[in-house]
Amino acid sequence: METAPWLVVGLGNPGREYARNRHNVGFMVVELLAGRMGAKFSRHRRAVAEVAEGRLGMGGPKLVLVKPLTYMNLSGGPAVALSQFYKVPVDQVIAVHDELDIDYGQLRAKRGGGEGGHNGLRSMSKSLGSKEYARVRFGIGRPPGRQDPADYVLSDFSATERKELEFLVDRAADVVEAIVNHGVEWTQNAYHGV
User: Which residues does this entry assign to the site Stabilizes the basic form of H active site to accept a proton (predicted)?
Assistant: First the structure.
């Protein structure tokens, strides 16, 4: 029997008005991964989500890439529905998300832990009944001055940040692939502090 695929959940909000927001880097990363695999997103019949399926390389691990269409705070519903549909164990689920507590340009891989006030992660942990899924944390830094963090995450990247954004999204996709191919610990050693 073929092993279960990996479920890679890009966290974000649906709709053009959110497409370039800091909160939508998860969508950006899974869209890039789909492009690498030559896969296209389409609406899934069992979940309120768009899904793209493919393999990493010839005969490599199967990935199911997910963009929940429920808005960030309800991301867990599609994640659990698809993990059940594809029979994916929680240790083969990866959430890709923006992270306020990491400087812009920094990427971190981890397994488990808290949600740090991130409503998408909170929803996933509650729906999956576990926090032991992997995370690719895309640093967006803290808001400047007294700007409300909720407004900050729903704003677009600055012109300065956009100069590096394509490179960082590409690198975040590399981090996802590294977790799938080598595990979280190997990925931490390879990518942290770089």
Answer: 98
